[in-house]
Amino acid sequence: MANQYKGCCVSINCVDGSVVQGEVSGMSDDNETLILKRPFKNGIPHTEKEIRIKASMIENLKIIKAQLENEPVINSSQVTKNIKKNNAPVPKPNNVKQKNKTKNAPNSEPEQPPQNFTNHKERNDACFGVSLDTIVKEDFDFEKNLALFNKKAFYNKIHKKPDLVPYEKISNKYKHNENVLHSTPVKFRQVTVPSPAINEYITDDGLVVPSITSELRWKLFNLVEENGLTTGRQNEIIGRAATEMVLQLLGGGYRFNPRNEHQWPRVVVLCGPNRSGAMGVNCARQLSSYGVHTVVVLSEPGLYTPQLANEMALYQFTTGTLITSAAELHGLLDPDFVVVSLADEQTDTVSRNITNWAKSVRSPLMAIDPPSQGTPSVVVKYSLVPALPLSYSESNGKIYLCNMGIPTQVFHLAGIQYKSPFGSKSVIPLHNNE
């Protein structure tokens, strides 16, 4: 059957979405593969001089150019009969007509070429600009066409005028077609201290927060207290921040929904006889006001600082539990959360029974205002620190900074140039500035 449509130019829509055009040169012996020479794929000459298309790949077939006059014209139904496989749709053939008049009949007219042959030729010429045969036979000259693109002249043209307005031209009024990208640069270092410690920290917004020494920190806290922000008010601020952190780490609104009927969380607060311990008791009192079951453990029950005594007097009015003996710790199963307020910068030792229990629990631990080298024998996951950070060790976990509400002028009295790094938040995470 191959000789019947050999020489026809066909256009084939393949099942993969591509369009192949070319001249039929034959078919395979099993009539399942169509062979095309001088093929085009998607309007571009194919790299191969001859390709083969299986019948299963044909979705649509059109005859765009019939055979020459000395060859029989192929009917598309014949092509469909031999090529159509897997029920692939094949369109009806174009109206290729021949006048069925005998040559010896009187007044017979000479046989005319098919009408659609001329139409397809005009369409091909209009599409490609030149003859199909010419395109296939000519090789594309890459070097010649690349030379037509003068890159140097093009770059000079696009860089002839600057896109941005020069700095000297910036004024209060600009034209509608002027692109002005001028703004005050962000000052990433908004806090400077007279005697910075070793480490530097950086916020999520890219602001650098230097660490300070213990001496500068005590100087700042003494100035704050002298100017009205008493120790009790400071404890209340950081106790509130610690309470909010614990509530969020316990699940926030999902855990503390009044409609939940599950068991409410239990938090153990380990407190020492110092400033940090007073902050821990304050946090326990505020957690209790949210319905959290709190257990306060005093590491040294016989020692009470004035701050700790004031906080304990308020905590006794809650429904929380107070433990003053290390032996009672063995009866505590793993709580939901543990707050560590055992030591500060002036504390060297902590009860071994308490630290051993803290190391044995599987609950997350958060320290409030710990020493820079960490709570002795205890490694925590989080640490909440006030005002400005010290140079903390890795045993303090992830550092969170609390806004204590210290006036800017008080920072200046301590020799610290300060602009708040908190933005709209009261607690922000700090990362090591490496």
How would you sum up this structure, described in words?
There is one protein chain. The strands form two sheets. The chain has a ten-stranded mixed sheet. Strands 1, 2, 3, 4, 5 and 6 form a six-stranded antiparallel sheet that branches. The protein is built from 13 helices and 16 strands. The chain has helices spanning 2-5, 76-83, 115-128, 132-137, 142-147, 151-158, 214-226, 231-249, 252-255, 275-288, 306-315, 352-360, 408-413; strands spanning 9-14, 19-27, 33-41, 44-45, 50-54, 58-65, 196-202, 208-212, 266-271, 293-298, 321-323, 337-341, 365-368, 382-386, 398-402, 427-432. With 434 residues, the chain is an alpha/beta fold. The model is unreliable at 68-110 and 162-170 (pLDDT under 50). Helix content is 28%, strand content 21%.
Short description:
The protein has 434 residues and is of the alpha/beta class. The protein has 13 helices and 16 strands.
Query: What is the distance, rounded to the nearest whole angstrom, between the alpha carbons of the first and last residues?
Result: 78 Å
The helix/strand series, from N terminus to C terminus, equals: HEEEEEEHHHHHEEHHHEHEHEEHEEEHE
* Major sheet strand order: 8-7-16-15-14-13-12-9-10-11
What is the makeup of the main sheet? 10 strands, mixed
Q: How many strand segments?
A: 16
Provide a count of the helices.
13
Provide the low-confidence segments as ranges: 68-110, 162-170
> Which structural class matches the secondary elements?
alpha/beta
| Radius of gyration, in angstroms, nearest whole number | 43 Å
Which shape, going by the Cα principal axes?
elongated
Q: What number is the mean pLDDT?
A: 80
| Estimated helix fraction | 25-40%
Determine the strand fraction and express it as a percent band. 15-25%
Q: How would you name the oligomeric state of the polypeptide chains in this document?
A: single chain
